[in-house]
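User: I'm putting together notes for a lab meeting next week and I want to include a structural view of one of the chains we've been expressing. I don't have a solved structure, so I'd like a prediction I can at least talk through. The sequence is below, exactly as it appears in our construct file.
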Amino acid sequence: MMNIRIHDTLTRKKIDFQPLVPGKVSLYVCGPTVYDFIHVGNGRTFITFDLVARHLRARGFDVTYVRNITDVDDKIINRANELGEEPAALAERFTGEFRADMAACCCVAPDAEPRVTDNIERIVAMCEALIGRGVAYASHGDVYFSVPGFPPYGQLSQQPLDQLEAGARVEVDAERKKAPLDFALWKAAKPGEPSWPSPWGPGRPGWHIECSVMAERHLGVTFDLHGGGVDLIFPHHENERAQSLGAHGEGTFARIWMHGGFLNFGGGKISKSDTSMKILFKRAFKLRTVLERHGGEALRYFCATSHYRSPLAYDVIVDGDDPATAPLRLPGLEEAERKCEYAYLTIERLREQLAVGKPGGEGAVAPEAESWLPALQESLDDDFNTAGALAAWNEALALANRVLDGKLDAPKDVRRRTLERLAKDLAVASAELGLGEADPRAWLDAHRARRCALLAIDVAQVEALIGKRNDARKQKSFAEADAIRADLAKLNVEIMDTPAGTRWRVA
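Assistant: Thanks for the context. Below is the predicted structure for the 507-residue chain, given as C-alpha cells.
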C-alpha cells in the first residue's frame, strides 16, 4: 500500500503524509526575485519541487502547485537603476528568462504563478488585519510585525529570540521599530521607487508578506506543503509563518515545511559576495551558462544524485591561474550528461527494435522488468529519495541493453515482451523523474552540438570524414575505412553503424 513520508522542517521529523483534502495536494514554493538570471543553486530548488509535484501526481493526487514571482524588491530597483531601466520592465524581462530556464530544466509550469504587483490590495488588507490583531503597528509610513507580540516566533528555525538577528533583506531604520527583531510588512515610498497607495501613505510591500498573501489567495488559509531552499528557513519562512498565524491563528498556513539543501562549492554555499565567486559566477554558476554547456536534463540528473535535503557538492575544475579565462570543467555535470546520453541511446534503440516485428502478446517477462518501477516509486514515496529512484532507473536501462544485445537467456517471445514492458514503464518513470521525455534523436543531436562547441570539434570535417568512410566501405576498402575511423577517434568522435545509417557521437 502506498505510504508517502515527508520530512517536516518544523518538527524535524519524517511524517506520514495525509493531505488536508483527501486526494488533493496544495503546494506553495517561493519563486525567484526577478532582477537577474538565477544560479544553479536556485535551479536545484525548483527542480526539486517540480519532481515533488510530478511524483504526487503520478501517485494519483490532484496537485495544485503555486510558485510566485517577486517582481518588486530592493534588488530589482537597484539593478534597474544600474541599467537605466524601469523596474517593471526589468522584472518582466527576467521573468521571461526564468521561465525559459525552467522549461530547459524540464520543469512543468506551475498551476499558478502569482506576482507581488498583482496582489497589492490583498497585502494592504493583511497588514490592516495584523494591526487589528495587535501583532503589527504603523510607524512613519512603514508597517512592522511585532515579534515580541508573537510568542511562537522562532519555532520554525528553532532559534531562541535572544539569538536571532533582525529578519529583513535590507536594514531598516531602527528608530522606526519598537523592537530589534520587528520586520517590515510595508515600506514607505522613497523618491523614484515604485509605490502604491495605502492607509499609511504611498509605499510598497516588504519581502515576506507577499508569500503569506499569495499562498492564501491560491491555496487557502491552510494548505499542505510549503517548499523552498534551506536558506529561506530564516528569516523568510519564519516571518511568513508569523504573519499568517498572526492573522489567522494557530493551526493555519503550511502543514508541512520542506527545504532543499545547499549546492556547495569548495565546502561552502554559493555566495556572489566572495571574490572568487564573482569571477567564476557567470562561467560556472549562472544557470543559463550551465544550460548552454550541458543542457537542463543533465542538471536535473545531477541534482537527483543526492537527496534533496542534503548538501550537493558542485565541483569546478579550472585549468589555469586565471579563473576568468582558463578552461574549466564541471565534472559532476559532465558525468550526469553522460548518464542522460546513455539513457537516450537506450530509449532510441528500444523504440527502433520495437518498431519492427510482431508484438509479444500476453505472457511472462524477465522478473527484473517487473520489479524496478515499484522500487523507483517506493524510493520517491520515502521523502522523495531521488538517489534510490535513479538506481532503479539505471537498472532498467541496463536490463534493456542486455536484452537488446542478446544477453538475456530467455525465449524470443519473453525477450520481446520484456522490451515492451521496459518501454512502457520507462515512459512512466520519465514522467515522474522529468528525465528521458524528449525525442531521443533530437536530444542526442542537441547534446552532440553542445559537446562539439565545448571541444571545438569541426562538425563539417567530421561529416566529410564519415562520408569518405561510407564510400570506402561501399567499395570494400575496409582498411581505408578503418583508418578513417581511427582519424575520427583522434577527434574524440565515435561512430556507430546502424540499420538507419552511420551515426556519431562525441566520446
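A couple of points you could mention at the meeting. The radius of gyration is 27 Å. Confidence is low (pLDDT under 50) at residues 166-172.

User: Perfect, that's what I needed.
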